[in-house]
């Protein structure tokens, strides 16, 4: 079992705290419970074995022993809409950490058979995925709670396939070990705690969103490619144009009209073009 989780000197110097668990149901759930108890935030809840993790839209997250599950609890003094952009900060921090433990190299793969347009070995997929050689290696989930007089609480959950990954997924998946990395979950977390500080400083309580957006676009996959976005029943198709100042996805349709999307499931390439997309996406 992975043990020995520790914060980087930069994170310690910036006032972050850590609590690690041999095994836990959900690090996000623990973080939200701590928020309800009045925790001031800037605390990481970390484990190498999460048994009840969850992803976006309530989907289960397969947290196998030896993989990383970490949640950062923050209490930002911002509006809820601004706090939502912390998902992009988390993706950047995780991408930087992955590059630190296993240097990036260029590849020519994106999910669903598309063509890579930027990104590199660890590329960013809107809204908050980090892909490894075009396959899903991680998941990021933001959950919020209003803490009364204590204000907003944001639990930023990050799960990474370090030593194993599920095989029965509707999309390509991988883990760092399969990619040749020799790092452990604790090694990756140490790098993550360091990289997160840098990207939080860039964010500046939302005042630095322009810089966050620019950095995200530099590492984005699929820019200029055909895209299909599942909005939970309605499909939007077109070209992945950019993300706007609010980090909404901008899709340009065949008629030239632009659609801005705040949340949805993104598919590239063959799936994006498939007429029976709904059946394939489920």
Automatic annotation (TrEMBL):
CDD domains, from UniProt? BPL
Query: Where does the signal peptide begin and end?
Result: none
The UniProt keyword set, sorted, is: ATP-binding, Biotin, Ligase, Nucleotide-binding
BPL/LPL catalytic domain: which residues? 10-204
In its UniProt record, a GO molecular function of this protein is:
ligase activity
Name the PROSITE patterns for this protein: BPL_LPL_CATALYTIC
Q: Which reaction does it catalyse?
A: biotin + L-lysyl-[protein] + ATP = N(6)-biotinyl-L-lysyl-[protein] + AMP + diphosphate + H(+)
The EC designation for this entry is 6.3.4.15
Pfam family name, one: BPL_LplA_LipB
Q: Which InterPro entries match?
A: aa-tRNA-synth_II/BPL/LPL, Biotin_CoA_COase_ligase, BPL_C, BPL_LPL_catalytic, Transcriptional_repressor_C
Top EC class per UniProt? ligase
Name this polypeptide is given: biotin--[biotin carboxyl-carrier protein] ligase
| Annotated organism of origin | Jiella mangrovi
């Amino acid at each position: 079992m992975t043990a020995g989780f520790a914060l980087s000197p930069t994170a310690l110097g910036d006032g972050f705290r850590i609590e690690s668990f041999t095994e836990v149901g959900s690090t996000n759930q623990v973080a939200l419970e701590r928020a309800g108890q009045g925790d001031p935030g800037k605390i990481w809840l970390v484990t190498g074995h999460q048994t009840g993790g969850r992803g976006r839209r309530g989907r289960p997250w397969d947290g196998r022993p030896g993989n990383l599950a970490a949640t950062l609890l923050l209490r930002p003094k911002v509006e809820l809409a601004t706090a939502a952009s912390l998902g992009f900060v988390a993706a950047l921090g995780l991408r930087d950490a992955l590059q630190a433990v296993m240097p990036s190299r260029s590849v020519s793969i994106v999910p669903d058979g598309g063509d890579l347009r930027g990104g590199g070995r660890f590329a960013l997929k809107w809204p908050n995925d980090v892909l490894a050689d075009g396959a899903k290696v991680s998941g990021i989930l933001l959950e919020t709670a209003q803490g009364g007089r204590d204000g907003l609480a944001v639990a930023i959950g990050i799960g990474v396939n370090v030593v194993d990954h599920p095989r029965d997924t509707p999309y390509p998946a991988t883990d760092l070990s399969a990619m040749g990395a020799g790092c452990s979950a604790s090694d990756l977390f140490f790098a993550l705690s360091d990289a997160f500080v840098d990207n939080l400083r860039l964010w500046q309580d939302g005042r630095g969103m322009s810089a966050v957006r620019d950095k995200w676009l530099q590492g984005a996959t699929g820019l200029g490619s055909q895209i299909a976005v599942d909005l939970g029943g309605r499909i939007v198709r077109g070209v992945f144009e950019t993300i706007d100042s609010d980090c909404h996805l901008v899709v340009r349709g065949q008629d030239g009209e632009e659609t801005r999307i705040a949340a949805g499931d993104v598919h590239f390439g063959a799936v994006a073009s498939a007429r029976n997309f709904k059946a394939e996406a489920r």
